[in-house]
Automatic annotation (TrEMBL):
One of its GO terms (molecular function) is transferase activity. PANTHER family: SUCCINATE--HYDROXYMETHYLGLUTARATE COA-TRANSFERASE. It comes from the Bacteria. InterPro entries: CoA-transferase_III_domain (IPR050483), CoA-Trfase_fam_III (IPR003673), CoA-Trfase_III_dom3_sf (IPR044855), CoA-Trfase_III_dom_1_sf (IPR023606). Coiled coil: none annotated. Keywords: Transferase. This is CoA transferase.
């Protein structure tokens, strides 16, 4: 519920504390979602370089574009987990947090003494989310994984690309980003359960499981036919016309998803008689006549500019889109109206643009997300405010190298 004593509504997770042991992409994407929803996220980083992505180029004034992209709204605390005092500090923090998120290989947190069982003994209400490439069980659980590896192992990569070319990975690193979807779903459901039971839970998120879950109807198609779906480029395996079509100055996407849209496509290209043509009047017939149907549509689109096609298809209510670059997509009127790009103030970079939260609430506005933290920016504040350590104690910990 919004905090009535505070006019600024942080979000529905205001008051929830998250201890964040994540790095690189899959885990930080999960804790980012929680921060966007209003949780207070304490990002634990090692001394030196911190999260590895702080070193990923391009870098401006010491700050990496990669780190900035997925760590907004978090608080950075630098602790040496190889020291006994450092471990004691994070255990004390775990006792005061609602959620812990980590994305090390299975067994790493246990070896550090920070696995679920010992932290559960400290804080039975703790919701502990482990995100890894293959999950905490199975023959591949100890194998390292990266986005393209997960796309290959899940079957997703096999379907992507042109029919006469090699398989091609997805442009968006969905193999990793699925952790930012399924991790928060598991955490939010466990928070809801905890309201009834009073105890937390260990959540095991496998990125490969997540991508397999996203196969959806593609997997069911394989079950039905007994065959692997083949690559069809930007087209759809069963729906026609669906994909990228040429324009005189570029290309445009058309998506004829349901039977009702076929007639609209026919009228938009000046061929209304094709709506009831016996050769093309069902989804199955259009699929089997894919090359003919695509040739008919292309013969019309290639004579017009993208701008003309947008006007024509908009008028006839045909699902379509121009193919926008990232910069153009982020500056288009719809993105502006939804405030998908906002300006925040970074500790060293000053005012910077960032992508805004993707989840909106109709009855309340959240403030602009706080900028991603510089390394260790909040160490003193977290130790002082959350653990009630004195300035002298914090100074001593810094002098001994436990914190930085």
């Amino acid at each position: 519920m919004p905090e009535t004593e505070n006019p600024v509504w942080k979000g529905p997770l205001a008051g929830v504390r998250v201890l964040d042991f994540t790095r690189v992409l899959a885990g930080p994407a999960a804790s980012l979602a929680l921060a966007d929803l209003g949780a207070e996220v304490f990002k634990i980083e090692p001394p030196g370089t911190g999260d590895e992505t702080r070193t990923f180029p391009p870098i401006r004034d010491g700050e990496s574009h990669y780190y900035l992209a997925i760590n907004r709204g978090k608080k950075s605390i630098v602790v040496d987990l190889k020291s006994e005092e450092g471990l004691a500090l994070v255990k004390d923090l775990a006792a005061k947090c609602d959620v812990l998120v980590e994305n090390y290989r299975p067994g790493v947190m246990d070896r550090l003494g920070l696995g679920y069982e010992p932290l559960k003994a400290i804080n039975p209400r703790l919701i502990y989310c482990s995100i890894s490439g293959y999950g905490q069980t199975g023959p591949l659980k100890d194998r390292p994984s990266f986005d393209i590896v997960l796309q290959a192992m899940s079957g997703a990569l096999s379907m992507n690309g042109e029919p006469d070319g090699l398989p091609m990975k997805l442009g968006i690193p969905l193999g990793d980003l699925v952790g930012g979807i399924n991790g928060p779903i598991g955490i939010l459901s466990a928070l809801y359960e905890r309201e009834r039971t009073g105890v937390g839970r260990h959540i095991d998120v496998s990125l490969m499981d997540g991508l397999m879950g996203m196969l959806g109807y593609i997997a069911q198609l394989a079950f039905f036919t007994g065959q692997d779906p083949q690559r069809v480029g930007s087209q759809h395996p069963n729906l026609v016309p669906y994909g990228i079509f040429p324009a005189s100055d570029g290309s445009i996407v058309i998506a004829c998803l349901t039977p009702a849209f076929w007639g609209k496509v026919c009228r938009s290209i000046g061929r209304p008689e094709l709506t009831d043509d016996a050769r093309y009047d069902t989804l199955e017939k259009r699929r089997d006549a894919r090359e003919e149907v695509n040739a008919i549509v292309s013969a019309f689109t290639e004579k017009h500019t993208v701008e003309e096609m947008v006007e024509i298809f908009t008028r006839h209510e045909v699902p379509h889109a121009p193919i926008l670059g990232v910069t153009e997509a982020l500056s288009q009127p719809q993105a502006v109206a939804r405030e998908m790009v906002v300006e925040t103030v970074h500790e060293t970079l000053g005012p910077i643009p960032i992508v805004n939260r993707s989840i909106k609430f109709t009855d309340a506005d959240q403030p602009v997300p706080e900028a991603p933290p510089v390394l260790g920016q909040h160490t003193d504040a977290i130790l002082g405010e959350v653990l009630d350590l004195s300035p002298e104690r914090i100074t001593a910990l810094r002098a001994s190298g436990v914190i930085a």
